[in-house]
Design goal:
The chain is mainly alpha-helical. The chain is built from eleven helices and no strands. The radius of gyration is 27 Å and the shape is elongated. It starts with 9 loop residues before the first helix and ends with a helix.
Length: 296
Amino acid sequence: MFLDKYKIGMRTIKTGIAVSLGMFIADKLGLYSPLFVGLGAISTMQSSVSESFQSGKNRMLATITGAIVALVMNYIFPINYFFMGIGIIIVIHILNLLNWKKAISLAAMVFIAVYMNRNTEIITYALNRVLDTSVGIIVGVLVNYSISAPHSDEQFDLIFSSMKNDIKDILYDIITGRNNFDLSRFKSKLDKLESTYELAKDEKRYNFMNKTLIDDDLAKLRAMQLIFTDLAALKSLNCKCCLNESNKSSIEKLLNMTLFLKCDNEITKEDVIYNYHISSLLKNLSNMNQTINLEV
């Protein structure tokens, strides 16, 4: 739809709610710098609940790191722009070593605020900045969890169902000799399915998902990976090969149609390879369907 691209996403709405709520709480608690509350809330809003929790933890630790480096730099070196730059380098390097790269901007801002402070006792100021940012992070995580939580199992099922429909279309193109079918879109979906499964595993670690569902999703993913391997092999043959009767019967049931395909020529090596991958694809598709039926 034309208007779909103008639709406001739920993550955007939740970010606005998190910032407003965080700033409101900061005002009621009398926190010194609500700005850092808002920054914490914005930085923690992620596309999944597990990502939000992990991001929140990393950003909180990174904020503490930025404040500690600022305290050390403030006590050891004179306050000037040269040593501020050195401090920023140290903060970034530490966070890179800890693989908290997404938290670098927030930690750097906390470092600058604490290091350049001249109006308040330095330790008190650093503790306040950590508190402000932590409140924002906690609010961001709770909002993401409480409002329309983007659980990865649902995203996984949507991508998986879309790929199942694609398989039937691609299979029809293969058996009718249309070898110009494009696998790039299917591969993109498979990559997305794999990354979504990894997110689902993280959600299971935070007890947001049942272990049985994770195991079922892994079976689906592996079957889909094997199907892609068969599709890629069939595409590489680049021929209108002869379909044997067993595969022909199975495909007719799958596609709910009658195939009028004749093999008048002698069976070739390519035909054998072709039918092997068709048979493998149908087997994996059948196993996949059985996994789904067991869930119902």
